Amino acid sequence: MRSVLSKRSRKINKKIGEDGYMNNSEMTFEAAIARLEEIVRMLEGGSAPLDKSLAMFEEGVALVKLCNARLDAAEQKVKILTVGPDGNLTENDMK
Description:
Elements: H1 2-15, H2 29-45, H3 50-77, E1 79-83, E2 89-93
Antiparallel strand pairs: 1-2
């Protein structure tokens, strides 16, 4: 178990930039949500110092923007199938 965690930590550390934040552009939607949930738990715990809390909050805001952008992009790809009066299926963009 420890080797798996250390491998994951090394992988995550490679994605952390000079500013201390993860490179969000490389994160999957699922990873961004998981990190956001982790940040929320830490902020709700209230044990982090103010500077750390502000940094986590800023990271969380960036993650929310990333997730919204990924959801918007996914929504653009979704098509709605409707059955016309003649019984044929037609594709329409989701609105």
